[in-house]
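INTERNAL AUDIT FORM
Audit reference: QA-55
Scope: verify that the stored structure record matches its stored sequence.
Auditor: D.O.
Record contents follow.
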Amino acid sequence: MNIQRKYSLPNCTLLLEGLSDVSRVAHFQEMRPELSILVNAECYLSGYNQPLTGGREFFESLVRAVSGYAQEFLSSVPNPQAHNQESELVEFQKVDSNRHRLIIHSEGAPEGFESHSNNSKRPPIEIDLNTVQLFDLVEAVDQFFADTQTLPELSLELQPVTRRYGGASQALIRQAVPAAVGVSSLAVAAIAFNLIPPPQMRPPQPKPNEQTSSTINNITPPASAAATPIAAATPIAAATPIAAATPTSKPTANAKPAVKDLEALLNTVPEITDPSQLRALNRQVYNQIHPAWTNRSGLQQDLIYRLGVAADGAIIGYKAVNKEANLGVGQTPLPNVLYNPANRAPISNEPIAQFRVVFNTQGVLEVSPWRGYARTPEVVGAKITDSNIVKGLNQKLYSTVRQTWSGTPTFTRDLKYRVAVNKDGVIADYEPLNQVAFDYFRETPLPKMFNAIYGSNVAAPNNKEPLAHFQVIFKPSGKLEVMPWQGYQ
């Protein structure tokens, strides 16, 4: 199967597409299959509309040139590996202290990039990067090396620079670089002076409260590129495993992928089927996709996808179910909500849940378990069951909501919610129970009440103490109903 990997920084995104080695498929044990045969590499840089593209030779040359130039820039010791135009497709030249020229002697220049060569057959591509862009590119390369499921046989071979290229002063050595420098860039700086051996590659640790999608806010590949992590156009023809990337193009003649359907894959990893857990994960999936789907116009057909979700709510993969979804994934936020392997521990033999996600033509998001619920879900967590306490909390919740609900309703159907409160009557959780409740939730006081306490409308529910649960109904007439929770219908 074809696989896609994406490594994103604010000013640079690396997009790799390839295949799994057929000889290794028999040992496939993870939701993220190993990308061992590189078919295409794309490098998106901020300020340029078109990506740099090429095959494995281009990518390996880019990695070597980036590492060599980072070594040279940090140490001020010339590194011939960064400027080897005789045998490399990619080289760097320093323009000034904050400008670095990336030159690609490659297979044709994409439109939008400037060429300064008179060679009309294959002119080199020349791009000027500032220091922040350069080190975002370095960090993207670091993310690639930290991902053990992508080209694992390709390692960063750091070589000490001969001292005859040296002569750098201590002042130059101490120069500061105002950018986040990754594992390989730090290593090359030290190896330039033979001070320390190269460290072992370790996956970068996520920053506190950092959202995976925040690293790609400023880089969004065009629709043609973003549409790659999807299934084959005919969903029945090849049922492939849900993974971080799925089939996009025909495999080469010499590399026939072994297609394994999702059911076969689930023989090696457990599937989450508990209705209560599925219900909780359903909400997490919705809360990730709903705010990220910003452009909801222009859909001619419903786009339907099958999602794989880890037990912590991380969306680990998706697959197009219909032809329109295969072609229109660029109109959805799915490529941006996939978990980043650099910001999370690798997915390995973890239980997964499957969900059906529909982006419909009316701009409404629908999320439901792929197989439905085997039985009626229950609310997870300790509950307040004393009838007298529940009765008092029922009255308190009614008064609080009634006092804060104002305005003339614009909805025409009942909005139904499950609302949980603690022993003091403070809202601890709320959940829409019908689609109209999702669509018009801003006309209720519930999100404001929840946000005032937790600072976010999508915060995890408070389940550390016993809660009393109620069904709250907002009627188009302006009438409010609050009653003890009897369970999901």
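Auditor finding: record pair retrieved intact. The chain is about 25% helix and 20% strand.
Action required: none
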